[in-house]
Amino acid sequence: MTDIQRASLPHALCGCDILGAAKTSSGKTLAFIILVLEKLYRERWGPEDGVGSIIISPTRELAGQLFDVLKSVGKHHNFSAGLLIGGRKDVDMEKEHVNELNILICTPSRLLQHMDETPNFDCSQMQVLVLDEADRILDSGFKRELNAIISQLPKCRQTLLFSATQTKSVQDLARLSLTDPEYLSVHEESVTATPTLLKQIVMVVPLDQKLDMLWRFIKTHLQSKILVFLSSCKQSSLQGGRLYEYANNKLVFKIWFLIVRNKNKLFRVARHSFGEPSLRRKEKTLRENKNVKLTL
Ligand SMILES: Nc1ncnc2c1ncn2[C@@H]1O[C@H](COP(=O)(O)OP(=O)(O)OP(=O)(O)O)[C@@H](O)[C@H]1O
């Protein structure tokens, strides 16, 4: 077990509310997925019991990854689970079946859409609420959705919050009606929230030389896959296009751009095609790049 799993599972299995903080890639996902499965299993949750747990994730892509873990870890259980995220056209079919699902993994907006629109959508028996990347969900961007969601959930429930940074904001905790929560911060002494094996280098470069420097860096790391983070879509199109010209003119190698927008949306943009790609394409891009060596 990882540190966060060892620290959180005993408390969580006893029914405590948890505020868990641990570095990225420290095994938080498995910590709450195991708890959800175990809790519902102990309660002998069955198909007729409806929604037993809701796991909220700030983005569609992260929700999709959680769903994959749930499918893999929970394959020997009989629970039904659904991925409720925006960007899909089958919302009417979702509405027909959502009440039959035991575990929902969702983004805040899609969950709220079901709460508002799906006839007889019933979470009144829900046992466990999980907020993954809780710091982002508690952020003001999701305030309206989260308040509306919480107001429709049963007060008597177990609530688990997991993120890379700990929240102790009284306001946040009051909004979620946590009961005497356990604060678990397994990497409190760490200087950064990223894994120690991740090598991080900063280069301070005059503005007018930044693109040349990036280009030289790319050329000297041809064996690596490289993610380039830029501040906005506009910047991504501009600088990405310029780099693409460099690559094309010199015919050095094939280049694609992975552009992160709003810090949480990852998608690939081909030259001359800077429109928003479909969710399926974004998911495919993420899957394709899951296990490659990346240079950031
Ligand atoms: N107990 C374990 N033993 C071995 N590997 C594990 C264990 N728990 C999780 N892992 C693996 O560690 C990797 C990172 O786990 P996970 O994605 O759950 O981390 P995380 O803390 O949720 O990351 P993030 O902050 O990015 O959401 C995954 O590949 C997962 O399969």
Automatic annotation (TrEMBL):
It comes from Lupinus luteus (European yellow lupine). It is an enzyme of class 3 (hydrolase). This is ATP-dependent RNA helicase. Belongs to the DEAD box helicase family. PROSITE patterns: DEAD_ATP_HELICASE (PS00039), HELICASE_ATP_BIND_1 (PS51192). Pfam families: DEAD. Its EC number is 3.6.4.13. The Q motif is unique to and characteristic of the DEAD box family of RNA helicases and controls ATP binding and hydrolysis. Keywords: ATP-binding, Helicase, Hydrolase, Nucleotide-binding, RNA-binding. Gene3D superfamilies: P-loop containing nucleotide triphosphate hydrolases (3.40.50.300). Residues 9-184 form the Helicase ATP-binding domain. RNA helicase. It catalyses: ATP + H2O = ADP + phosphate + H(+). GO terms for molecular function: ATP binding; hydrolase activity; RNA binding; RNA helicase activity.
